[in-house]
Amino acid sequence: MCWKLSYILFSRIKLSNYLNTSITRAQYITKIEESIRKATLKAKFKYKKNDPSFYPLLQKYGNEKNAIVYAEKLQKLYEGKNYAKHNPCTFVSDLVKELKNLESLNEVL
Asked: What is the reported pLDDT for 44?
C-alpha cells in the first residue's frame, strides 16, 4: 500500500487534501480512481496495477514536489522501526529523491 499512498499524495495535490488517516487498499484504489477521473474528466478510468499509462497521468495532473513534502510530513508522525504501525506512511519519496539524485549525477558525467 506504500505505493498507492504515494500515488494519492502525488495525484491528489491539485484535486483534494493531504491524507493522514489509515484507509484500506480498496479505499486507496477508489481515491486514486476518483482523483484521476476528476482531473481527466474520464468517467470510466479504472486503476490497474503495473499499468504503464498511469505514471504519465501522475506527471500531468499531479505534483511530485508536494507529494514528497506530504510524504515527509507523514514520516515525522512516527518514531521507531515498527513500520507496520506507521499507518499511513510511505518512504517511496526517499526512493524518488535517490533516483533524481542519480539522474543529476548522470547528467554531470
From this structure: 92
Q: Which of 80, 97, 78 is nearest to 88 (CA)?
A: 78
pTM over 0.85: no
Do residues 41 and 96 lie in contact, with contact meaning Cβ atoms separated by under 8 Å? no
What is the SS3 assignment for the chain? CHHHHHHHHHHCCCCCCCCCCCCCHHHHHHHHHHHHHHHHCCCCCCCCCCCCCHHHHHHHHCCHHHHHHHHHHHHCCCCCCCHHHCCCCCCHHHHHHHHHHHHHHHHHC
Q: Are 68 and 90 a contacting pair, CB within 8 Å?
A: no
* Amino acid letter, 41: L
| C-alpha cell recorded at residue 49 | 496495477
